[in-house]
Structure formats: C-alpha cells, structure tokens
Amino acid sequence: MPDISDLLSSAAPDVRSEPDLGALERRASALRRRQHVLRAAPALALVLLFSALLLNRTPGAPDELRETDGGTVSTAPRPGLPTVAPGMPVGPLPGRSGAPSREVTAESAEPLPAPTPSGARSVSRRTPPTPTAYPPKRSCRVDTIGLPAGATRSCSFTATHDGGYRVVAAHPGNDVAGDHWVDVTRNGKTTRYGNESAVESHCGSDVIEPGDLVTVGVYRTAGNVMEFEMAAGEGYYCGSYPESSSPSPAPPGPTAGG
Amino acid sequence: MEDDLAEFCRREHRRLVAALHLLCGSLPMAEDLAQETLARVCRDWKRVRGMDAPGAYAHRIAVNLATSAFRRRAAERRAHVRSGPAATVSAAPDSATAVAVREALAKLRPEQRRVLVLRYFLGYSVAETAEVLGQPVGTVKTHALRGLSALRGELGTSVTAADMEMRNA
Predict the structure, then answer these.
(1) Is B149 on the interface with A (CB under 8 A)?
(2) The model's pTM
(3) Deepest in the core among A36, A70, A90, A136, taking most CB within 10 A?
C-alpha cells in the first residue's frame, strides 16, 4: 500500500540546478524600486492636489466665465494652463449596482469647472461640464490597496497610443474579485469594459485609440479583502504581463519548512 | 548577495520547484514561480531572516503565486516562448507511477492539491499547513481528506495517508 508522501516524492521532478542568484538580485532590486514608487504615490498625489488647488486660487487669474445660449456655461482656460488637474478628486463612479459608491482618490481627474468669479451672477441652469480632455498619457493604473469597502478609485487620461486593458492581482495569489471597469469615450460615445469577475472581462486588446478619453476604475465590495489592480492603455492587453504592485504577504508562523 | 540569503535560496530552490511542479503541473512554470518567489524573499530578506520559519514564508508566497490564475497564464506564456526545455529536468524518464500521480493531482480541486502538496510533500503539519494557507485547521483537514479520497479514486489504489492524517490531526 503506497504512502502518499512517497507517491508525491516520486512524482516531483529531480531538480539539480542551482538558482540564478544574479537574476534573483536583479529581480529583487526591481521589486524594491517598484515598492518605493508605490509608497511614494500617495504623497505625490497630495502634492498634486495642493498644487492644483493653489493654481485655481491664484489671484488675478480666474478662468473666464461666460454664459451662452440655453444656459450652458463654458469655460475659457487661460493659455498655457492645463484644462485638467491631475490628482483632484473626481465624482463618484458607478460601482456595483445598488451599492453606495464613494470616491477616495484618483491619479487624474475630470476637467475642473472654472471657479465662479466674484460678482458673477449665479447660473441656475448650468449644465454639468462634459469631459473634453484628460491629461495625455500612455496608460494609467489603479489598485484596491488600502481602499475601504464600498469605495472606488479611478484614474483618467487621454490616450496617446493604442492600447487595451487588463486587471491583475496586486497581491501574490489573490484572484481578482471585485468591480473593475474601463470607460472609453470616443466621439462622445462611451463604451464600458471589464466589471464583474468573469474571466473574459479581465482583459481586452485594442480597445483604445489615440484621442480616446479613458477612465479606469476599481471598486471594493463589502467583505472582499482581495487586492488587485486595473490598468489600461499602451502595453496592456490580453496576455500582457504587467508588473503588479506586490505588497509582501503577512508572514506565516509555522515552525517547520525552514 | 549575503551568504545566509544565498544559502537559503540554494536550499529552498529545489523544494520550491518540486512543490510548484506538483501544484501547477508545468516545470517551466514552476521554475518561473520559484524564481519569482525567491526574488520576493530577497527583496524582504532583512525582515524575513528574523522569522521563525523563513521557508514557510517562501512557501506561502509560492502557493499564492501558483494560485493566481493570471500569473499562471502569464508564466505559461513566457514559458512557451522560452527556447528549449529546462535544464533542471531529470534526465531519467518519468515512471508510469509518477505520470499517473501527476495526472491524478491535476484532476483534484486546487485547494485540495495545495493541501496535499504542503502536507504530504513539504511535510507540514496540519496546523502549519493551515498557517501557510491562511485557512482554519478544520478546512485544511477537510481538503486533505477529500483530496486523498479523490486521489485514491483517480489512482485506483489505496494510500496510507489517511492514517497519517488522523495521527497528526
């Protein structure tokens, strides 16, 4: 009567080689660099946020506001100033149907409506601004690390290159379980990709063209502790293998196997 | 690379590749995942070296990596584009038993396969297996018993692990 341990040992390969220590060091260095970047990201987002706020409060440089027919308000940004403000919080994105949706952070945001100059009359029939441009980028990515349940995180950009999208586990071993989507707006028409956990929705190739307005979002459902990230743009497609953020798993405490 | 880290990598590499091969069924993929596992250990070595069981930490990362369908696919893709078979494969042809066991393992549910490999190949106790997998002890026992039962059915023979399971439970 065979023993299961003997059976498994017989089925395992006879590994004779040594690990490539040089390659290990190089890969570890790359992982460390990525870890540092990820740790610095929140601080960078804060800096961008305050920069954007300061820009919009500069005395003597308000965006002009004019009312056009039908009550539509359009803005005329100052020359040389960006029409969008990376790092600003954006409005709530649609999350799971029926679930509350709360925006936490965003790497980039929708175009900011111009502040109403002092003395300007209020516009009661004001139409919400339509996104006309996001920061031009090749790609952007968001993850659920640190994201509370019921919250969303998103980033937006104007595509400068062809691309697709892909969702990957952000933590070693975590399968993706949660809402994730990519909205691609082209010629005023928005197409949504991703969302839910069907395998087929985890990636898409050649869905983004230069000039497309792209928003990438993730949503953490209640009780879901999985961490994953969603990315879109150049270099992301079905079969791509983007580097994912990889926080270290909590150390286990077994006493054997060392 | 520090001496103790290099020694750890050399010691764990073989066990990792072997265990990952049993878990994912592909030797190139097992080698990729073992390399990635050790890279993560290298990255965190200052913290890992102080742990009671650095090997268990590595095995947890390895199991997590193997579990991820996305990484598995990506590693498969990269493995396919690599030229030639891996040099670490034993020159000896696989025995019929080895092939049968691997095929039987491949038919198990992933959670059962993980438990069997950790428990009976890497030699962890039930409690340690539960710790590595982050699951309750009862869940691990259930997976082990059902996995063994399924393995018996696939192999068409009896194995003695059930007794071992009872002893160590």
Answers:
(1) no
(2) 0.46
(3) A90
Interface of B with A in 66-105 (CB under 8 A): 66-71, 73-74, 77-78, 87-90, 92, 95, 97-99, 101-102, 105
Q: How far is CA B156 from CA A151, B101, B104, B166, in A?
A: 51, 11, 10, 22
Extract the residue ranges of chain B whose pLDDT is less than 50.
83-92, 162-169
pLDDT (0 to 100) of residue A195: 63
A36 touches B at CB < 8 Å: no
pLDDT tens, position by position, B27-55: 877 888 888 889 988 988 888 888 888 88
pLDDT given at position A120: 35
3-state secondary structure of A194: strand
Task: Scan for tokens 């996305």, then name that residue.
Answer: B70
Test A15 with B57 for CB contact under 8 angstroms: no
Distance of alpha carbon B57 from alpha carbon B44, whole angstroms:
11
Residue of B36, B18, B45, B28 lying closest to B121 (CA atoms): B18
Quick: pLDDT tens for A151-170. Answer: 888 999 999 988 888 877 65
Q: Determine contact: A198 vs chain B, CB below 8 A.
A: no
B137 part of contact set with chain A, CB < 8 Å:
no
Q: What percent of chain A has pLDDT over 90?
A: 3
Q: Cβ B39–A12 below 8 Å, yes or no?
A: no
A174 and A249 in contact (C-beta within 8 Å)? Answer: no
Site of tokens 């975590």 = A174
CA gap B34, B24 in Å, rounded: 12
Quick check: A191 and A184 in contact, CB under 8 A? yes
Name the token pair of A119. 């003395």
Please compute the mean of the pLDDT values over residues A83-100 and round it to a whole number.
39
Interface check for A68 against chain B (CB to CB < 8 A): the answer is no
Q: Does the beta-carbon distance from A4 to B159 stay under 8 Å? A: yes
Q: Give the residue, A196 or B136, on which the prediction is more confident.
A: B136
Of B22, B27, B59, the CB nearest to A8: B22
Residue A179 pairs with which residues in a beta bridge?
A219
Length of chain A: 258
